[in-house]
Structure formats: structure tokens, C-alpha cells
Amino acid sequence: MPRPIFATIHTAALSHNLARARAAAPDARVWAVVKANAYGHGIERVFDALRSADGFALLDLAEAQRLRALDWRGPILLLEGCFDARDLELCSRLGLWHAIHCNEQIDWLAAHKTRLPHRVFLKMNSGMNRLGFTPERYRAAWTRLNALPQVDEISLMTHFSDADGPKGIAVQLKAFDAVTHDLPGERTLSNSAATLRHGEVLAGRSDWVRPGIAVYGSAPDFPDHSAADWGLQPTMTLASRIIGVQHLVAGDTVGYGSGFTADGPLRIGVVACGYADGYPRHCSTGTPVLVNGVRTRMVARVSMDMITVDLTPVPDAGMGAEVTLWGQSSGGAALPIDEVAQAGGTVGYELMCALALRVPVLAD
Question: β-strands 266-271, 260-261: how paired?
């Protein structure tokens, strides 16, 4: 029998969450962001559930090829554009749209020989200070692109750094509008947080929205809001089973470094899951977990292959009992991935993307 740990991808939840993002921006078209192998879910597994999207956005040329191999003929956007002049040949062949965020990418495009001109997305650095042209340099970049025969249409793009928090989007939106107000072209401004939190402000101003983490059932502004607050459903469940039970008395310790000490009689379950499966190593005593759908807590340190859980709330649980590390139990009880991530000092994005190759993945 194989080790009893597996992940399940909930395709109906993916479709639901995409529809939720669309409802939050009813006047815009929707990119389904599938970078990082669809946030660890697998492009091939999520494709049918997300094919109602108007386009797919990602980073990697190989992932774009996988989408075309799935017979997707709609738009695909390279969010970081090309990494080398030679990438433009594949953009031409696959009909990829791509971001332009620096002068070198414009130089490559100017030297590229193509029969069909490219659709490009000119990115403004409106305050994120990662990729893009500063507002002072943006119009000059637009003018250069507009003069190239290799360019068909220029769309305008930026990315909000604080859409998920109190600072909001006002400063960046003002910087973007000041430079682009009279430029033609479609706009794409909104990530998940901007789509859900600032939809009223951005209504009619963003032709495309780019929901990423929201599509995968995680709240972009947790803990201010939970996934349930936004009407999102979990799309990934990591589940295992109890493979051993220990009966402790006061003073007994558990795990490496004796990281937990029982203060009285305690029954604990040993679960086949550890950091080598992608479970966050920095989780500690108190991290929530479900046993047979009942919420309890992890105790002691996370090991490579095992964690230990308090069985006090589930006295009937023993060998083989179902353990939900995040996601949804077979009985329907939910453990939000954001809560587990918070306990490990990280975010739900990382847990999804860090699922280990040794964990079997199913799709329902």
C-alpha cells in the first residue's frame, strides 16, 4: 500500500472562483493566471475548469506551449515578457502576447523579423519598483513601440503593491492615470486583491483583470478577510491518515528537541506528512488540523515525514483516521489554507506552490 498522503484538486471550485472574480469585475475580461504550474495545481489539471477565462497569463514559455498543446487558441500573456531576443520567435509561432518592461525588450522587438506584428503590454512601474518603466519614462517607451512595424497593438499595464492593505491603490492609480489618460489601448491593472477590494473604484477602467490567488481559493488579503468572506472555495486539499497513536502522561515530550511537553494524560496521533511533502516546517504546536473532520491542533515540531496531532477532540480517532492538513475533509469540513500558512509564518501561495513531487495528486 502506498504511503497514505495525497492532494486533491477540486475542479468545480476552480470554476466557481473564476466566476466569482468575473462577477467582481463584470465590465472586464478575465485572465486566469496559471504561472508556477497553476500555483502548484498543474496546468493540465486546471485547464478544463478555467477554460471559460478570456485568456491565460503566465511567465514561462514552456507553460505557454503546454496550453497550446491543450488546444487553447485564445490569448496567452507572458506577464514578464521575454527573457531573451530568441524568445520572440516562439511568441510569433505560438501567437503569444507579451509584456514590455524595459528598453532591452524594445530593442529585441525592433530587431525581430516577423510576418505578423505582436500584441504587447507596456508595463508601468507606478510604485511597485520591480518591473516596468517609471512614469517619467513611460510615454517615451510607448512612442518607441508605436513606431515599430513589429507591433500591432499596445496595451497598458501596471501592478498594485498595496491593493491588499490600508495603503490601497490611490497613489499608484493616480500616477498611472496622469501618464496614460490620453493614450489609446486596453488597460490591465487589477490583481486578485484589486479585483475583489477595489472593484467599484476600477469599474470601467480596467479592460482585463488578472486574478491569481483568488482563483485558487485563497484570500488575497488574509487575515483582513477569509476566503469564505469573498465567496471563494478551496481548490486544493492535502490529506493523509494517522499511522500511529501514542498515549502520554504528564512530563512526556514529543518530537525532535522535545518540542512539546504534555501537562497531563494525552493521546496523540502520528500523521504521514512532513516538510518533505511540502508542509511548512515552521508550523508548531497549535497549528490547526482536521481529524475525521474535527478541528484539533498539531503538537511539537514538523519532521521530514511526520507530524503529531492532539486527539483529545476526537476520542474515537485511531489508526487510519482521516487527517486534513488543509482544504476540505471528506465530510465537507473546511480548513482554510491561509490559516495553516499563517501558523507557519508564510502565505497560502507558498504552500500551494511548494507541494512536493512525491505527493500523489488527484483531480475530482
Answer: unpaired
